[in-house]
Amino acid sequence: MRALKVLVVVMGVMIVVGVIILGVTIFRRVNNPHPTAVAAASIDAPIKLPATLDEPAGTSIVQATASGERIVLLLHGGGPDRVLVLDAHDGAVTARTSLAH
């Protein structure tokens, strides 16, 4: 009977600690909805991107993401949606993929 009481108390403490951790996590995410994940992909040298990407008229950049020494661009308009991968050091296009509708 004593072991059961200890077990109930330990599980109760674990539930309280879990609820506190959950509350703190929700509070932090509500106050900082966009964590800075790009900081891990920082580059020491300045980025030199080309002035034009040779894309059709009406093309716009929907999303840009830095990943290591690459910059990934999601392009929309001017044809099918596309993904471009640029070298972060010289801005050269290293890969180009069209997305099917």
Summarize this structure briefly:
Helices cover 30% and strands 27% of the residues.
Detailed description of the structure:
The chain has 101 residues and is of the alpha+beta class. It has two domains: 1-35; 38-98, no CATH class. It has one helix at residues 2-31, and strands at 60-67, 70-76, 82-87, 93-98. It has a four-stranded antiparallel β-sheet with strand order 1-2-3-4, with no helix packed on it. Mean pLDDT is 81; it is low at 37-42.
* Helix-residue proportion: 25-40%
Number of domains: 2
For the termini, the CA-CA separation is 65 Å
Please give the largest β-sheet.
4 strands, antiparallel
Mean pLDDT: 81
Radius of gyration over all CA atoms, rounded: 24 Å
Low-confidence stretches: 37-42
Arrangement of strands in the largest sheet: 1-2-3-4
Instruction: Identify the overall geometry.
Output: rod-shaped
Put simply, the count of helices is 1
- Work out the strand percent: 25-35%
Q: What structural class do the secondary elements suggest?
A: alpha+beta
